């Protein structure tokens, strides 16, 4: 325990907890301090000026990160017949209809993302209480209820990241790995921030994006200057 505490303290050395760093500086600080024995995930936290308890202030969407997420995503597709075959050909890990619904109802959830064809939603709708709390429920707004299962599977495998604001008005997401080139991490973060900006709801008043910080799995949090998040920064 003391060894972990010592490493955490060392990783925070040289980081001003108050200062707002440019995105490039922040990424470099995280990469220099990532000393875990595994490839740490780079995570972003965005504090938004919204109250998601109001429907017109909900923030939700999906973004395809230009450099992928660096993690292996297991994809399940709820489909029948030709669409099921199409999903398998596209690289889906699990494909099924009634039998897959039964497995999920029984607690067998061996996937990170779920896709469904529109005709399956009558069945899949029964899984709301199981998949909803895990953020796995297929939804047309984020492209996971679609007849184009090939595109949806490939997007999920290739770096599509779904985001949804939490009760406190914060969005969290993994946006890459510390092993990525610094420019690739920065590109992913800018793409993610841009997608959240474009998802600004009609009911948002005042300052929409209030604070942004990035961290690695075992590293310190670093506050990011909002002006450095634009694609032209």
List the helices and strands and how they pair.
Elements: H1 2-12, H2 23-33, E1 41-48, E2 60-64, E3 75-78, H3 81-90, E4 94-96, H4 98-105, E5 113-116, H5 121-124, H6 128-131, H7 149-158, E6 160-164, E7 170-177, H8 182-198, E8 209-216, E9 222-223
Parallel strand pairs: 3-4, 3-5
Antiparallel strand pairs: 1-7, 1-8, 2-6, 8-9
Helix pairs in contact: 2-8, 3-7
Helix share, percent: 25-40%
- The DSSP helix count reads 8
Choose one word for the global shape. Answer: globular
Q: How much of the residues is beta strand, in percent? A: 15-25%
- How many strand segments? 9
Q: Structural class from helices and strands?
A: alpha/beta
Brief overview, please?
This protein is 32% helix and 20% strand. The chain is of the alpha/beta class and 233 residues long. The longest helix has 17 residues.
Can you describe this structure?
This protein has a 4-stranded antiparallel sheet, covered by helices on one side. A 3-stranded parallel sheet has the order 4-3-5, sandwiched between helices. It has 8 helices and 9 strands. Helix 2 (23-33) crosses helix 8 (182-198). The chain is of the alpha/beta class.
Spell out the key features of this protein:
single chain; 233 residues; 4-stranded antiparallel beta sheet; globular
């Amino acid at each position: 325990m003391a060894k972990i505490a010592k490493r955490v303290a060392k990783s925070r050395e040289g980081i001003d907890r108050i200062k707002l760093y440019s995105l490039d500086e922040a990424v470099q600080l995280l990469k220099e301090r990532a000393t875990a024995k595994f490839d740490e995930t780079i995570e972003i936290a965005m504090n938004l000026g919204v109250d998601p308890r109001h429907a017109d202030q909900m923030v939700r969407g999906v973004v395809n990160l230009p450099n992928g997420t660096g993690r292996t995503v297991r994809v399940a597709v709820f489909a029948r017949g030709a669409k099921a075959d199409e999903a398998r050909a596209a690289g889906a890990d699990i494909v099924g209809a009634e039998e897959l619904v039964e497995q999920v109802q029984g607690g067998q959830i061996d996937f990170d993302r779920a896709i469904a064809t529109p005709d399956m939603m009558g069945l899949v709708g029964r899984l709301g209480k199981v998949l909803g709390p895990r953020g796995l429920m297929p939804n047309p707004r984020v492209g996971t209820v679609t007849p184009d299962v090939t595109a949806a599977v490939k997007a999920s495998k290739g770096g599509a990241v779904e985001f949804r604001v939490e009760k406190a008005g914060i969005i969290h997401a993994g946006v890459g790995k510390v092993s990525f080139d610094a420019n690739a991490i920065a590109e992913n973060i800018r793409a993610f921030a841009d997608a959240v900006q474009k998802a600004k709801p009609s009911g948002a008043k005042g300052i929409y994006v209030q604070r942004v910080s990035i961290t690695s799995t075992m590293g310190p949090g670093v506050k990011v200057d909002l002006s450095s998040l634009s694609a032209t920064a």
